[in-house]
């Protein structure tokens, strides 16, 4: 999700020359990729429209000052976040279980019952529905791709208000007990400015729980996870760079957690001196030297892993096997963008009915329902996110498909 609250005066191909998180000019380029789709969750009605998706460049840049990694070629506003943007993972039982557990944990840990909650970048509002339904909380969500009509009959909807817009501090019309922002900060290049806007939205004298969740960039660095590098994600954080940014923006970090098989990085903060119930302020480890050494070899390791996958797919096609991908989200767009011969993939499966019948941004592959695999009878299914493997293998078995299943 994306909340671009400020504009960056940056023309195409001009690279940012100061770190958006700390202002340092000690920057070095660590990975480059040209002409990738700028919008990987948009719905396109056919392959021609999908191939004409706007493209942009990735120039991953490492800041020695704070350890932040960002796309210095990112153009704020290039990616479209509208009603055509379909990002929800709510159709996956695995993700729904994680989401429900996360909501319940937040409610229990921070006594969020009957409280006021703001979510910036709330997507379609699924998480607020859970917080309303499970904790009786009054919730306000802001997001340019929100669809208030889609949730109006859902349990908890009576306490959830959605605003379809980018967030501005004046929307925070009351003191909130919790301010939540999930899977949004990684879409924002002017990171310090954005957090300053959130800080400004905190009512004087209140001490909300501030909860942010983003992808864990340490996983990209250690696993060479090229599928997690794509245009919309312009900002990549590890524990240290995240804590340093929040401190600089005037927050008091309380704790950092790794969740969802280490894929997500979560930070909990407040403002001012923490209360006894909140526990002491967090003193983060300095991970800058470790990040710098991993960043220095990233391009080489990404290239190696990309070549391995290209080879695996080419060998399968050569042997007359049918290869499909499972998952059509951003990881899938990044994966297809990295392949020298994406046409060797026969189709892309997605369980989200809102995506089925559309075409993949860039490559133009058909997005099909799982049931359509019966007609294709694939030999190899490449799963975009290992977290969904069990669920996918159950689906395949129920359709009598005995394909080999491999996860990225
Ligand atoms: Zn920096």
TrEMBL record:
- The C-methyltransferase domain extends over 298-399
- Coiled-coil intervals: none
The GO biological-process annotations, alphabetized, read as: methylation
Q: Which GO terms describe its molecular function?
A: methyltransferase activity
Which Pfam family name is an example for this entry? Answer: Methyltransf_23
InterPro entries named among the record's database cross-references: MeTrfase_14, SAM-dependent_MTases_sf
Q: Which UniProt keywords apply?
A: Methyltransferase, Transferase
Q: What is this protein called?
A: NDP-hexose methyltransferase
> What species is given as this protein's source?
Croceicoccus mobilis
């Amino acid at each position: 999700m994306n909340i671009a609250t400020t504009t960056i005066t940056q023309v195409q191909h001009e690279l940012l020359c100061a770190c958006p998180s700390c202002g340092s000019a000690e920057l070095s380029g660590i990975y480059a990729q040209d002409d990738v789709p700028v919008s990987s969750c948009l719905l396109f009605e056919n392959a021609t429209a999908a191939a004409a998706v706007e493209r942009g460049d990735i120039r991953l840049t490492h800041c020695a000052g704070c350890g932040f990694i960002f796309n210095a070629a990112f153009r704020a506003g290039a990616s479209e976040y509208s009603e055509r943007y379909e990002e929800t993972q709510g159709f996956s039982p695995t993700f729904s279980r994680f989401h429900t557990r996360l909501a319940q944990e937040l409610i229990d840990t921070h006594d969020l019952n009957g409280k006021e909650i703001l979510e910036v970048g709330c997507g379609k509002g699924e998480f607020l529905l859970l917080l309303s339904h499970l904790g009786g909380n009054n919730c306000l969500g802001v997001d340019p791709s929100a669809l208030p009509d889609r949730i109006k009959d859902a349990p908890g909807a009576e306490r959830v208000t959605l605003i379809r817009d980018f967030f501005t501090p004046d929307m925070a019309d009351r003191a909130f007990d919790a301010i939540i922002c999930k899977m949004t900060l990684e879409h924002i290049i002017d990171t310090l400015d954005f957090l300053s806007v959130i800080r400004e939205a905190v009512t004087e004298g209140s001490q909300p729980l501030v909860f942010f969740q983003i992808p864990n960039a340490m996983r990209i660095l250690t696993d060479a996870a090229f599928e997690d590098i794509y245009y919309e994600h312009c900002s990549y954080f590890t524990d240290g760079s995240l804590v340093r940014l929040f401190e600089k923006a005037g927050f008091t970090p309380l704790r950092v957690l790794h969740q969802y098989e280490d894929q997500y990085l979560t930070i909990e903060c407040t403002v001012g001196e923490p209360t006894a119930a909140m526990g002491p302020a967090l003193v983060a480890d300095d991970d800058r030297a470790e990040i710098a050494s991993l960043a220095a070899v990233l391009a080489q390791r990404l290239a190696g892993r990309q070549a391995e996958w290209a080879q695996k797919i080419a060998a399968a096609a050569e042997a007359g096997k049918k290869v499909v991908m499972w998952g059509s989200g951003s990881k899938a767009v990044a994966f297809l963008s990295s392949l020298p011969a994406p046409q060797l993939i026969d189709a892309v499966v997605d369980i989200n009915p809102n995506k089925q019948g559309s075409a993949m941004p860039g490559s133009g592959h058909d997005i099909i329902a799982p049931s359509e695999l019966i007609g294709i009878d694939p030999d190899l299914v490449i799963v975009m996110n290992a977290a969904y493997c069990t669920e996918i293998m159950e689906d395949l078995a129920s359709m009598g498909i005995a394909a080999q299943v491999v996860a990225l």
